[in-house]
Amino acid sequence: MSFVRLELWPWCGSFLAVLFTGVAVSLMDDYLDEEEYNRWAGWVHKTGRGVVVYMAVLLMAAASLRLNWTVTLFVGAYAVGMWQDLARPLPSGLKGWQEAMILLVMTAFHFGWGEMTSSLAVILFIQALDDMVDKRLDQETALRNWTLDWGETEVALLAGISLFLGLALHPVKVILVILAAVLIQYSKTPKKEAPV
Amino acid sequence: MTLTSWFLFVTTLLAGILLGYLTGRKAGRKEGFQEGILYAPLELRRRALLDDFCLTCGREMVFRKKNE
Questions:
Q1: Which of A41, A81, A117, B57 has a 20 to 30 A CA-CA distance from A193?
Q2: CA-CA-CA-CA torsion for B46, B51, B55, B57, nearest 10 degrees?
Q3: Rg value, chain A, Cα
Q4: What is the pLDDT along chain A (196 residues), one digit of tens a residue?
């Protein structure tokens, strides 16, 4: 019993933190991109701006379970999201890459470089893998995709580098994030072929 | 060699492969473009003579029929 209480529970809490953060990021992504080809899209469209409230609640729950992972993973997802359009001017007056860099450095100083780098690495890995899987769909719908911008081999190598760097820095976090991402992706994938 | 060192070794190896791939691809594209420029006129002429149709101006090439 002591094993369950002392060893297994912290990882369950950490997994829930990662899962909540992943769901929050995914909801934000679906809302901003007006995504249509997944099972959450209907709910996101119906809820509209209310998604922000659910996102905040999810992030709060995640942060209460594992603050450093939640913040670094969210900042990592934010920076990778900004990467899609680095030169875009934002309401802050800064460009996408400047805002992302400031946030990354501030978070790294606060939570540690290893924590921030491992979170960024695993988010990069998931994004690269997602773009490799969605290449055909993104080509048809004219969405931004790294494999279309940089080439499939480059993105595959980037995914490999990110994965092994993350594993070297924080193996447990990387495994839990990948598990959560698989779970989220599975719950979002439509059962039937999406109409094109 | 610990597992962490092994992961770092693979990361460095993949980073090296990526760097080499990017450099090679950039040089390859440049060389390929130069070769393409040299090859294009020959290929255009070959296709025009085979199809009796000029790919540059879009006109049919009738000289062969006249000669025949």
A1: A81
A2: 120
A3: 17
A4: 454 455 667 788 899 999 999 999 988 887 877 666 676 777 777 777 788 888 899 999 999 999 999 999 999 999 988 776 767 777 777 787 888 899 999 999 999 999 999 999 999 999 999 889 887 877 777 777 888 888 899 999 999 999 999 999 999 999 999 999 999 988 877 766 555 5
Of all residues in chain B, the one with the smallest CA distance to A166 is B7
Q: What is the pLDDT of residue A56?
A: 92
Kindly identify which residue of chain B lies nearest to residue A155, measuring between CA atoms.
Answer: B18
**What part of B 28-67 touches A (C-beta under 8 Å)?**
none
CA separation (Å) from B17 to A136, A178, B25, B47?
26, 24, 12, 40
Residue from B14, B19, B26, B29 whose CB has the most chain A CBs within 10 Å, to mutate: B14
Q: What is the pLDDT of residue A195?
A: 55
CB A74 within 8 A of CB A25: yes
Report ipTM (2 d.p.): 0.76
B3, B4, B18 member nearest A157 (Cβ): B18
Chain B CA closest to residue A171: B4
Alpha helix positions (H), A112-134: 113-133
Nearest to B26 by CA among A151, A187, A144, A196: A151
Question: Tokens 């029929």 sit at which residue?
Answer: B65
Flag if B18 and A154 touch (Cβ within 8 Å): yes
Beta-carbon separation of A160 and B14 below 8 A: yes
For residue B21, give the nearest of A154, A165, A171 by CB distance: A154
Q: How many CA atoms lie within 13 A of A108 on its CB side?
A: 15
